[in-house]
Amino acid sequence: MTYQEVKDMIPPKRRWCRYMSCLYLQRWRGAIRIRYGYRYRSTQTIAVWYPNGRFKFKSALLYPSQRFRLNLFMPGDFQACTHRYHTFLYKSDGKDEPRTIYIPKEERRRFRTVENAAWISISPKGRVTPKLGLTLAEIRRRLKHADHVRDLPRRRGRYWRRKARGIYRNPCGHPWPQKCNWRDHWPKPTTDWRGECGCKVYTKKAVSRDTVETIMEEQNATVRTAKIQIYGVDKFFVDAKAKTTDKEANYELIRLDTGPGHRETDRWGREQTANVVLTALRMTCSTTGKVYVNTVPPQIRTVREGLNWMYDTTNYLGRVGKQT
Amino acid sequence: MSNLRDCPRQGDLLFIPRPKDKGEVVGWQKQSLKKNGIIREGEATGHHHKLAEPTMGEVYRPDWGKPIVVVGGQGATVVHNEHGPITLQPDTTYDVHVAREWDIHSGARYVAD
């Protein structure tokens, strides 16, 4: 088994538990160690594959409050699985009964950083032999690069989110509107994004160059919704031909399914993906004939509910009198 | 629940009268008295919802909670550049409910006029 083959077995990030923010491979003296870390503070070896072909599970992360399933398939079809407070290793080959190995709670390691762990495991005196493993700099570089790549969709979402809000730049030079370079603190975020330091964020209205088709093809849910905002929610409802689900008086409730939303993993490790459904009230002014569209929460199903939510009342249609 | 159609609406503002026995404005709310009679300022367009004459009533805009309009004995008229005027009943205290909209990312927020 090669390094790459072991690497391919590591499940994608979305299958990891929330405590396991960094799962990486380490080569040392011909052995491949699979380690995980939590924000570079604590590291632990999960499994080791030795050059003579022997494969050994070391342990898995265990905390009493943590109930997650770690699907990590290894040579011999081993599967590490935590149930309640304990972790078991299953070997499920077709004929035999699954073998279960109990792993006790792991004590904390003395390594506090990845660098320390890698340094100790590579060479106690700091000497690095290129044939046997990666250098410390290389490990650090790879980890940094992996973090960067993993963070790209979130960064892209943040960029588009800010663009949809019209945030242009910060006069103190920092790209984030919440942060200030002039004074070394985080200003209190307010509704208009003016912090206590007095920085005023310049805004510029974004111009949409997208069509309904290109917006609907977008895979990133955050980017998709931000593009809809830039496009204009009212206009998007009309152009995308939203369905009318309820009608009452001069009001219509319209709904539009824009596709899968954020992927979330529940505590059992299962993915839960709900579609992003835009819901809005379309109102036609009886005197001027002008049409207004007001977005409402997606759980609202009727016009009455929508109006009551919109004006924070209990009986809008029964009580409203003159409307202008 | 009253079925009287006694709640006028002007654009994104809905005026709901308080019951007579619960019409008093609390002391800390009285600190937010607006003498210019502006009920809600237009953030986007600059158009205000305001009393036609500030002497017609008292407008309170507390930091927490909804704006309050206490109408005097002569009644009051609320005007706006884009919408038609509405009339408020005399000797009545109104809670002003501002329309909300749902933002995809950040949830509920008040409509910017």
Tell me what you see in this structure.
The complex is a heterodimer of chains A (324) and B (113). With 324 residues, chain A is α+β, with helices and mostly antiparallel strands. Chain A is 25% helix and 29% strand. Chain A contains 8 helices and 15 strands. In chain B, the strands form 3 sheets. A 6-stranded antiparallel β-sheet of chain B has the order 1-2-10-7-6-3, with no helix packed on it. In chain B, strands 4-5-8-9 form a 4-stranded antiparallel β-sheet, with no helix packed on it. A two-stranded antiparallel sheet of chain B has the order 11-12. The mean pLDDT of chain B is 87. The A-B interface holds A 161, 222, 225-226, 228-229, 276, 278-279, 287, 294-298, 309-316, 318-324 and B 1-11, 14, 16, 80, 83-87, 97, 99-105, 108, 111.
Determine the oligomeric state from the structure. heterodimer
Rounded to the nearest angstrom, the radius of gyration of chain A is 27 Å
Sequence of strands across the biggest β-sheet of chain B = 1-2-10-7-6-3
Annotation field: number of helices of chain A: 8
Distance between the termini of chain B: 30 Å
Query: Proportion of β residues of chain A?
Result: 25-35%
Layout of helices and strands, plus pairs?
The complex is a heterodimer of chains A (324) and B (113).
Chain A: H1 3-9, E1 22-28, E2 31-38, E3 42-49, E4 55-57, E5 73-74, E6 78-83, E7 86-91, E8 99-103, H2 114-122, H3 136-164, E9 167-169, E10 202-203, H4 212-217, H5 221-231, H6 233-239, E11 243-248, E12 251-265, E13 271-284, E14 291-296, H7 303-311, H8 316-319, E15 320-323
Helix pairs in contact in A: 3-5
Chain B: E1 7-10, E2 13-17, H1 27-30, E3 33-34, E4 38-40, E5 49-51, E6 57-60, E7 68-71, E8 76-79, E9 86-88, E10 93-98, E11 100-103, E12 107-110
Antiparallel strand pairs in B: 1-2, 2-10, 3-6, 4-5, 5-8, 6-7, 7-10, 8-9, 11-12
